[in-house]
Design brief:
- Pfam families: Ser_hydrolase (PF06821).
- InterPro entries: AB_hydrolase_fold (IPR029058), RBBP9/YdeN (IPR010662).
- This is Alpha/beta hydrolase.
- GO terms for molecular function: hydrolase activity.
- This protein is of the alpha/beta class.
- It has one domain: Alpha/Beta hydrolase fold, catalytic domain (Rossmann fold, 3-Layer(aba) Sandwich), CATH 3.40.50.
- The protein contains 5 helices and 6 strands; from the N terminus they run βαβαβαββαβα.
- It has a 6-stranded parallel β-sheet, sandwiched between helices.
- Strand 1, helix 1 and strand 2 form a beta-alpha-beta unit.
- Helix 2 packs across helix 3.
- The mean pLDDT is 95.
Length: 184
């Protein structure tokens, strides 16, 4: 794979059994954005870490964001335009605008920017994600100009979902890469 796969975990980082960590091992071009404080996220700090990782990555970048990191990508994209990012998987976005769905420490990521992203994206959700409703995930996908995929009852698509290497997610990533190749 010629692209850098930039893994962007959400609140609390991605634990050892999270599919993002499996992907870090599986894809030789995968790199991870590391945050200063995983448990008390500050948007400004997280944006700085993301920007630093993007600047240091070589070649074209495919972002693979999970949960709170999906909002991070929308905030970053609002302020930055860079041709280096050619696509993104936005997996299990957390609804930081809803106190009923997300913890208080994520509120500084609200409001979620509702602007079309400058690169092809796929929003992936589950029908029983406790951090967002299917309708809200579909709304975000529409606003961001993303393809929307509901993969059924798989929770928050995190360690508890027991996805390991998550073949279905890899197939979606491959489809996104093929779309990018056809349209460059």
């Amino acid at each position: 794979m010629k692209h850098t796969i930039l893994i962007v975990p959400g609140l609390g980082d991605s634990g050892e059994t999270h599919w993002q960590n499996y992907w870090l091992q599986h894809f030789e071009t995968a790199q991870k954005v590391v945050q200063k404080d995983w448990d008390n996220p500050l948007l400004k700090d997280w944006l700085e870490s993301l920007n630093s990782s993007i600047e240091s990555a070589e070649g074209e970048i495919i972002i693979v964001a999970h949960s709170l990191a999906c909002s991070l990508i929308s905030h970053w994209s609002k302020e930055n335009k860079i041709d280096k990012i050619v696509g993104a998987l936005l997996v299990a976005p957390a609804d930081v605008d809803s106190p009923a769905h997300t913890p208080e420490q994520t509120r500084n990521f609200s409001p979620i920017p509702l602007l079309k992203l400058d690169f092809p994206t796929v929003v992936i959700t589950s029908s029983n994600d406790p951090y967002i409703s299917v309708e809200r995930a579909e709304f975000l996908a529409e606003k961001w100009g993303s393809t929307f995929i509901n993969i059924g009852e798989k929770g928050h698509l995190n360690s508890e979902s027991k996805l390991e290497y998550w073949p279905e997610g890899q197939e979606i990533l491959q489809s996104l890469l093929e779309f990018i190749e056809r349209n460059q």
